[in-house]
């Protein structure tokens, strides 16, 4: 789980607030979430963003720098790694704490 | 009869010159990819009113989709499509988030499928003017094919579903129909877990459509 920041403040969000928002979102259909995101209204239900601080990657990379994705189903371990990589590097290295929002 | 598993597509026709193929590669999406897209392409896409993804923040979507689907005991598979630029290096040109093992939309044939939740192709004009890609690839079929191939390789025979965002209007419906997907009739019921009225914007590929669409791209894998 990432360290999320509130959108309307510099302060981190509380673990409880993020869990509550995720739980609320998980009651909605995928189509409903897509509509909210596309209408720019996801902030009403999830007013957080991952903690930043990571530099923006270069625009381009050499072919040998690309690790091509497997088209086969992933193992449990690969899936866990994929979820972990969805979080900013700084948050990855820290404990999975949420701070006050 | 096809033997073995399919790979992802590795080239696509240019949108400028359909006779030219552009090299593609597919990688798993990381936080850095999402950050790059939001920082470098997001501001260019935001003013384009016709884009259904103009408000999407991939940095938020990527972890959020993972945790929301884990809460439903499903997994997401977020992918990035890269294209070879004029200088030979690769640039991010497409993004997608699929849900694995999702209820198949055609309730007359109960089963599992993959659901293509979010997908974006970078604006061709922006790629050309800002990123040195004089031959931007046509990605619609490639984005769908990634889902079909993953579904086939997972044992779901290529069955996929998606919902066309209302923000994409009628034009987005036409895109998916043109790509060869089947449109779920507006009066059709949805699988019970979806808990939503059918708004007529759902599309899917059954086994036959999926195989035909995938086979059409086999020469480019």
Question: Would you mind describing this structure in some detail?
Answer:
The complex is a heterodimer of chains A (101) and B (221). With 101 residues, chain A is mainly alpha-helical. Chain A has a two-stranded antiparallel ribbon with strand order 1-2. Chain A has helices at residues 15-25, 30-38, 42-45, 76-84, 89-93; strands at 4-6, 48-50, 60-61. The mean pLDDT of chain B is 95. Chain B is globular and about 50 Å long. Chain B is an alpha+beta fold and 221 residues long. At the A-B interface, helix 1, helix 2, strand 2, strand 3 and helix 4 of A face strand 2, helix 1, helix 2, strand 3 and strand 4 of B. Strand 3 (60-61) of chain A pairs antiparallel with strand 4 (90-103) of chain B.
Strand-helix topology:
The complex is a heterodimer of chains A (101) and B (221).
Chain A: E1 4-6, H1 15-25, H2 30-38, H3 42-45, E2 48-50, E3 60-61, H4 76-84, H5 89-93
Antiparallel strand pairs in A: 1-2
Chain B: E1 11-13, E2 21-28, H1 31-45, H2 58-71, E3 76-84, E4 90-103, E5 112-121, H3 124-131, H4 140-153, E6 160-163, H5 169-178, E7 182-183, E8 202-205, H6 207-215
Parallel strand pairs in B: 5-6
Antiparallel strand pairs in B: 1-2, 2-3, 3-4, 4-5, 6-8, 7-8
Helix pairs in contact in B: 1-2, 4-6
- The proportion of residues forming helix of chain A, as a percent range, comes to 25-40%
* Number of H- or I-type helical stretches of chain A: 5
Number of helices, counting only DSSP H or I runs of 4 residues or more of chain B: 6
Oligomeric state as shown = heterodimer
Strands side by side in the biggest sheet of chain A: 1-2
Strands of the widest sheet of chain B, in order across it, are 1-2-3-4-5-6-8-7
Strand content of chain B: 15-25%
Considering DSSP H and I runs of 4 or more, what fraction of the residues of chain B is helical? Answer: 25-40%
User: Helix-strand pattern of chain A, N to C?
Assistant: EHHHEEHH
Q: How many individual β-strands of chain B?
A: 8
Rg result of chain B: 17 Å
Average pLDDT taken over every residue of chain A: 82
Low-pLDDT sequence parts of chain B: none
Shape estimate of chain B: globular
Distance between the termini of chain A: 16 Å
Structural class of chain B: alpha+beta
